[in-house]
Amino acid sequence: MKSKIRLGVNMEFVRTHDKGFEWGVKKAAEIGYEYIEPMVHLGRELLSEAGYFHSVSMYDDPLMIKEICDQNHVKLSGLSAHTPLCKPEISVEYLKMAIRWAAQAGAPVVNTDEGPKPAWTTKEMDFTLMKYTLTEASKVAERHGIKIGLEPHQQYSTTPEGLKSIFELVHSPAIGINYDCGNAFLGGAADLYDWLESIKGNLVHFHAKDISIRQGEDERGKVTGTPVGCACGDGVVDWKRVIDIVKSTNKEIVFSVECGNVPDAIRSFEHLSRLI
């Protein structure tokens, strides 16, 4: 299989515009993106219900979300289903529901990370808790043909060794890596290109997040990640080098752009399209 890179956008790009999910899908399609990555939540919350926020409730019919995507000729690259793996009382049922929901909606990947840890647990306890959570989730994912994308984003996954130690907790074909190059850069512990090279065989999804020079100077080595970055091409990431590494795999990978507004999503699409 020849490697292919597809372009998608995380629905965070409409967050600062106070617009809802359907508006964001239409805007993503208008820009030219083939894929979107929705954020999902449990229950109901006011802003999404009122159409001022992009998150989607998993109480809603996943086939309705698929219909909205089909009407706009876009697909789901995955779900942003970040939940604290170290807190199984939250994450186990949330992830299992997200996996079942993804299978119905047509999203092949559910992305998550270890999340903020409980204040009172030790590292040893956290890894036991994460193993329990990922074991439960992976069994459901295997049945439904869904991949779990582990992202570098919190206290243990900001280094190649830390992310690898979480990835290796459970040996399941359902578990892969959602590499976030912006978070990898901000973590400051490794070269983001060497890190990508080392995990490219386990990639199931990719967060295309660039970091502005100013943010890099202020925060690198001090934070574990950031919600969104600047427009791809405006920051520190060498996208040609990133694309070449991903193209050396035999996979089809969606680059899901993570930026904070529509103008950045447009510039990201134009920049990455030229390089791909």
Q: Please, could you describe this protein's structure?
A:
- The chain is an alpha/beta fold.
- The protein has a single domain, classed as Alpha-Beta Barrel (TIM Barrel).
- Helices cover 43% and strands 18% of the residues.
- It is built from eleven helices and eleven strands.
- It has a nine-stranded parallel beta sheet.
- Strand 3 (40-41), helix 2 and strand 4 (56-57) form a beta-alpha-beta unit.
- The mean pLDDT is 97.
Major β-sheet, in short?
9 strands, parallel
Spatial order of the strands forming the largest sheet = 5-2-1-11-10-9-8-7-6
Measured distance between first and last alpha carbons: 17 Å
Output the CATH topology.
TIM Barrel
Q: What is the CATH level 1 assignment? A: Alpha Beta
Total helical segments: 11
The rough form would be described as: globular
Low-confidence stretches: none
Rg to the nearest angstrom? 17 Å
Mean pLDDT: 97
Estimate the strand proportion: 15-25%
- H/E element order: EHEEHEHEEHEHEHEHHEHHEH
The CATH homologous superfamily corresponds to Divalent-metal-dependent TIM barrel enzymes
Query: Which class do the helix and strand fractions yield?
Result: alpha/beta
Q: What is the number of E strands? A: 11
Oligomer: single chain
Helicity range: 40-55%
Total domain units: 1
Just name the CATH architecture: Alpha-Beta Barrel
